[in-house]
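fyi for ur records
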Amino acid sequence: MFNLNDIIRPNVLKMKAYSSARDEFKGSASIFLDANENNLGSLAGEKYNRYPDPHQKKLKARIAEIKGVQPEQIFLGNGSDEAIDLLFRMVCRPGQDSMLHLPPTYGMYEVSANLNEVALQAVQLTGEYQIPVEEVLLNVKPTTKIIFICSPNNPTGNLIETESIEDILRAFNGLVVVDEAYIDFADARSWTSRLQEFPNLVVLQTFSKAWGMAGLRLGLAFASKDIISVLDKIKPPYNINEATQELALQALERGEALKDMIEEIVQERELLLEALPDLPAVEHVYASDANFILVKVTDPNGMYNYLLDKGIVVRNRSSLPGCEGCLRISVGTLEENQRLLQAIAEFK
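which gave:
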């Protein structure tokens, strides 16, 4: 039976959150002399001389409406990387505890684990880039506090089978983090719809991909109210700036534009999936549920450098176990994709 208090670090359980000036203030006022701000104004524009809402109440309320969750089930971070880092700090004792991930996968799980002195456990995905559930559960130790599952997976692009994630959620008494950075491009239901069913589930999403807001750095974590309350306790007080909160609220009102963008990206993805296998230098094209495609080519290093010379930047993933010979190619605009296909066709 999962019990959150059994896995939270003892020092985190005992600590008190930083109390900011805006946390202590209640009610309305016209003169603010509590936060050592510059009351003359800001050289960056109106309102930016004031600290932002540390709890992002308006933004969370709107996200909750759209996602069908409670505001208390939402954590907002400086990119989803902040949420990943805080999850380690929340439950993993440095030098004592461990995490389990499923390579080839997103590299920041490993980076954050190393930064927090958390031991790495790796179970390779199968040849079909799915989870070998029995092997995962056999590798779980008493010190294993988090399992990271990326779905759709980066860099392979595929969704992870629902049944496999369910089996791990039911069997593992630690946090299971399902990273859904690319879920908007997939024909699948988000795991946010099952938060009530699994108290150890954490779902990561981002505004960087489908929403096209990578430059604003806004990530999301969805979980039980208990998990979110701990993340809120240990985060920096003003981790989401005012401009990001304002622009995100504006973007959330453009649901139809988001839908149109996603449809266009998916359409371009399907055209690339159809065209790439016919090119001589391409050995295999993997199915994708994301906004990128993993492509196995005859000469990955040569192809990568050749495309660079053509002014086209892709990601060389050929050094990753399970991705030998592969490049990861983001879906671009119609014109960009045509230039890419033409360049690969001319590669010798």
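Residues 71 and 342 are 47 Å apart (CA to CA). thats all i got for now
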